[in-house]
Amino acid sequence: MTNNRLALITGASAGLGAEFARQYAEKGWDVALTARRADRLDKLAREIEEKYKVATLVITQDLALQKSVDSILHELKEAGRHVDALVNNAGYGLPGTFFNTSWKEQAQFIRVLYTAPIELVHKLLPGMAERNFGRIINVASLAGYAPGTGGHTLYASVKAGLIKFSESIHAEAKDAELDIHCTALCPGFTFTEFHDVNGTRDMANESPKWMWMEAGPVVEAGIDGVTRGHPVVVPGAVNKGVATLTRILPEPLGRELMKRQSKRFRKMEND
Ligand SMILES: NC(=O)c1ccc[n+]([C@@H]2O[C@H](COP(=O)([O-])OP(=O)(O)OC[C@H]3O[C@@H](n4cnc5c(N)ncnc54)[C@H](OP(=O)(O)O)[C@@H]3O)[C@@H](O)[C@H]2O)c1
């Protein structure tokens, strides 16, 4: 048992989640890593323990399962640990339209990207309030700002929902004068396994390189933002520019632009 603070990171087996784990560990935090691929989590845990000399806890869970959040919290309790920072990061894109995807796929998507993160916040907040310390990062997306388009139907909706949810939790904690910060991190294109998993790597490779960020600076902006108490963080100058455009463009024009652009990175088929 250590006296270090603990960060619980979902989707820690790859991409932004693994980078969150490394950056929190580098700051001297213990990390609890959760995702489905146990081998990846174990490897990362060994790397982090060796390099940063902090404690790690691996919790293998599929967030699509109804009981997954309770199971994660149970394992933390068994280990005698409470959560000081929660990074709701696990996610993926679901190619196809609403017509050609099954309800099972959509329901799992909502569960992993929206219900599970919100349930984790709801169940961890009372402890954070009692200790008067909590840092929550909800990994949303620039897509949460942009108008909805055809393909990957619910992606923009759940990410927009996470942004609003984060703003509300931020406001409620402030009203209650608690040292709890909640931040929605809104990355644009980021080099991770995201586009390999949803089968859009070839399409994504055609977007200009200046639109892309490495995971390191994205995560750094998220941790810095939650530390400072910013409710929403858009990392990088290009992404900030896009976020501003979505607010100032007339809605029909914004929709038309997004429709044209999204054809380059959203798949309408789901095979
Ligand atoms: N990369 C981008 O361009 C980009 C842009 C904006 C926002 N984002 C957001 O950033 C977050 C992280 O994505 P990433 O880019 O780092 O993608 P990634 O490299 O594919 O990593 C996704 C992570 O989510 C986990 N995950 C997926 N389904 C899960 C499930 N059912 N249960 C538990 N864990 C699950 C994966 O672990 P397992 O497969 O081992 O379960 C993996 O660790 C996502 O919320 C994504 O929407 C990404």
TrEMBL record:
Listed GO MF terms: oxidoreductase activity
Source superkingdom: Bacteria
InterPro entries found in the cross-reference section: NAD(P)-bd_dom_sf (IPR036291), SDR_fam (IPR002347)
Calcium in keyword set: no
Listed Pfam families: adh_short
Gene3D superfamilies: NAD(P)-binding Rossmann-like Domain (3.40.50.720)
This protein's GO CC annotations: membrane
Swiss-Prot/TrEMBL keywords: Oxidoreductase
Alphabetized SUPFAM superfamilies for the sequence: NAD(P)-binding Rossmann-fold domains (SSF51735)
Entry keyword annotation includes Metal-binding: no
Cited CDD domains: SDR_c (cd05233)
Similarity section: Belongs to the short-chain dehydrogenases/reductases (SDR) family.
UniProt-recorded name of the protein: SDR family oxidoreductase
